Amino acid sequence: MFQETLNRLDGLDDLEPPIVVCNNDHRFMVAEQLHELEIDKPTIILEPVGRDTAPALAIAALQAESEGSDPILLVLAADHVIPDLKAFHAAIKQAKQQAESGLLVTFGIVPTSPNTGYGYIQADEKNTISKVKAFVEKPNLETAENYVASGDYYWNSGMFMFKASTLIAELEHFQPDIMTTCRESLKNAEQDLDFIRLDEHIFKSCKGISIDYAVMEQTDKAVVVPLDAGWNDVGSWSSLWECAEQDSDNNVLQGDVMIDEVQHSYIHSEHRLVTVLGLDNIVVVETADAVMVAHKDSAQNVKEIVKRLTKDNRTEAENHRLCYRPWGYYDCIDNGERFQVKRITVNPGASLSLQMHHHRAEHWVVVKGAAEVICEDKIILLSENESTYIPVGHKHRLHNPGRVPLQIIEVQSGSYLGEDDIVRFDDDYHRN
């Protein structure tokens, strides 16, 4: 969906490389997906902690202003579905004219139902570009029905367009403390490979607030551009069911799935056969990490499960089987007492750090490609179906000298197998 967000801008004129604001855990995934799209020189800014949209947009505007004279920013979230690109592009062109005149533009979605899951925007005028009269929170059903019937309200999309200087000026006026903090955190940021790392200590002190509360509800420069393009904010599994192609029983089935007497359901399998019998209006999601089964009306309550996982110190709250790294990624295939098995993929030309472990030994078997292995003072070249052993305490490094991804199976054994048992001596990516 992140890639689709960027791809749906194809055909628009005068586009600069994107500024992406994300958290530290997503940095390599973002960089890899941008690389797959062959996007040159993107700016990736890493937030050490989440502080909602106002600080994130402040940082993006300050960075954009430093890179150009006074660019217009189109603000998009990575979890939207917009099938009608012609209508979307037309709305962007309308919004650009408003932004160039110094206004803060928000895109109002023409509502198709009295949805209680969205905030609403009240416009001064119907069915046209209009001054914003009010932003309102998610309503109850009766209120939402009145909003839709009146024709004065749009769904709040969370998409915006404005000059960098306009947003900065309004934030300076309404939220000077946020601007001071964001300026200092960006001024003291560190360049880490392709990433800009905001100063953690400074940014943590920033107030968390949405751009709606911080600026849009207070400014007299807010205008709304109507957008009728099949938009959907895919914020839950049930909304993903709504926007996906459904079969004759109104089911969305993805992966290895078999059902009998099932209707109005979303069933997603990534790794194994999933069977569902005699159930309606449910969501089933199977991944390498976990399996979730929920009624569609309760699917958003997954956040309560996450809270309980965190409270119980369950590793599932933080760790995933598939983990991206600057050199590639690894998948934890199996683990048990004193052992762990990983499938490691190393990009062509990439290398892991020169490192050692105090508590574990490693066995490496090449299953695809070629590997160059440093172990203490020896350099070993391995082809498919060849292997090597890294004893506890030995300095070692893995490198892919080839032109295709290298895949190895790693079997770790020892008294402690945590990722923090890594002592790095040299690293191409400047990690500690």
Describe what this molecule looks like in 3D:
By secondary structure, the protein is of the alpha+beta class. It has three domains: 2-233, Spore Coat Polysaccharide Biosynthesis Protein SpsA, Chain A (Alpha-Beta Complex), CATH 3.90.550.10; 237-302, no CATH class; 322-426, Jelly Rolls. The protein has eleven helices and 29 strands. The chain has helices at 2-7, 27-36, 53-67, 85-100, 141-150, 164-174, 176-187, 200-204, 211-216, 237-243, 302-311, and strands at residues 19-23, 43-47, 72-75, 80-81, 104-109, 120-123, 130-136, 153-163, 190-192, 195-197, 222-227, 232-233, 252-254, 257-260, 266-269, 274-277, 282-286, 291-295, 322-325, 328-336, 339-346, 354-356, 360-368, 371-375, 378-382, 387-390, 396-399, 406-414, 423-426. The strands form eight sheets. Strands 19-20-21-28-23-26 form a six-stranded antiparallel β-sheet, with no helix packed on it. A five-stranded mixed barrel has the order 5-8-6-7-11. It has a four-stranded mixed β-sheet with strand order 1-2-10-9, sandwiched between helices. Helix 3 crosses helix 6 and helix 3 (53-67) packs across helix 7 (176-187). The protein is globular and about 75 Å long.
